[in-house]
Amino acid sequence: MPRAIVASDKFKGSLTSAEVAAAVGAGLRRVHPDTGVVSVPVADGGDGTLAAAVAAGFHLVPVTASGPTGEPVKTGFARRDDVAVVELADVSGLVRLPGGVPAPMTATSRGTGELIAAAIDAGCTRVILGIGGSASTDGGVGIVNALGGTDALDLRALRDRLAGIQVVVACDVDNPLTGATGAAAVYGPQKGANPQQVKELDAALTRWADLVARETGQDLRDAPGAGAAGGVGFAALALLGAELRPGIELVLELVGFHDQLQGADLVITGEGALDEQTLHGKAVAGVAAAAAGIPVVAVCGSNKLDPERLRSAGVVAAYALTDLEPDVRRCIAEPVPLLQRLGERIAADHLR
Fold first, then answer.
1. pLDDT per residue over 315-338, tens digit each?
2. How far is CA 292 from CA 36, 134, 318, in A?
3. What is the CATH number of domain 3-42+263-350?
4. Torsion sign (Cα): 67, 270, 230, 242
């Protein structure tokens, strides 16, 4: 009996990773009805991380926390035993901006800190924090405040709160906090900041880094990843004692991907679009690297990578919805039958 693992990221705005796996699996079985299909939803540490954890057996703990502009949002953390998974995007992310209106100068990461606090109060001692998709450039000040740190940087309450707590951050960028390649300069415009606001944000981050350095005796503003998520990476490193790890690597570990590989004939991964970003820390490249010699193919909405680039990442073939339906809007609106047809093609090409 052939055995296939479907470890896909979401198709953003269209399907969850679990729905991608269900559709592909249905197509595989049309060609080989006895195919064993194992769904292992994955994410790269940004939006979708919480859903991937829940699909892997974590329990969702609902929490109401502050959104990026202060309004309450219904969110939560995923828990298994004493491990909590917190997704910044689901509480402090761009997707939580009211009406989608950017707030580059006022958006805050406070809600993420509130989620971490809720997980600690519930008895969790290891917090996995995915920080992609941030709406703010606050240097993580909001998180620090929510955990007991004050604006004058009295850290006693924060240190008490984090005593015995391990924080691991899923982070896929190596930007410093400040400067030409820092959080404000590189990511501020994506969050709605104009050139003058970028300068103001960078100056504020510089003052924040100076304050933290004076209080802690170490200056981590130039540490790789400090500029991640509008400077949340900096606060995590400098004040939460966090370890930064590649997002997909951390998620694969959380969902038990490696445990599923034994006896697999094929690994199918995927995401909405395959492009140059795919090769730098995204789910498809991470799954292919972790597949331990098992053939890997990818499904996607659209593919901008040639076969040689894909093979260099460990992907032997890619199957795109746009191969079947050139109308992108229809691919987004009606992806399931198209994915099922791609599943049939994959079964015919790669399963015997």
1. 999 999 999 999 999 999 999 999
2. 19, 33, 19
3. 3.40.50.10350
4. positive
End-to-end CA distance of the chain: 9
pLDDT digits (tens, 9 = 90+) for 127-168: 999 998 999 999 999 999 999 998 778 899 999 999 999 999
Q: Are 97 and 107 in contact (CB under 8 A)?
A: yes
CATH class name, domain 49-248: alpha beta
Strand order in the sheet with 3-8: 36-39, 3-8, 266-274, 296-303, 317-320
Q: Which of 90, 34, 10 is nearest to 335 (CA)?
A: 10
Helix (H, G, I), strand (E, B) or coil at 58: coil
Mean of pLDDT over the chain: 95
- Looking at the DSSP bridge assignments, the partners of residue 166 are 126
Specify whether the backbone of 242 is left (phi greater than 0), alpha (psi in -120 to 50) or beta.
Answer: beta
The alpha-helical segments, DSSP class H, found in the chain are 17-31, 49-55, 89-92, 110-121, 141-146, 156-162, 195-216, 232-239, 247-254, 283-290, 307-312, 321-324, 328-333, 335-350
Q: What are phi and psi of 50, to 5 degrees?
A: -60, -45
For the chain, give every domain's residue range: 3-42+263-350, 49-248
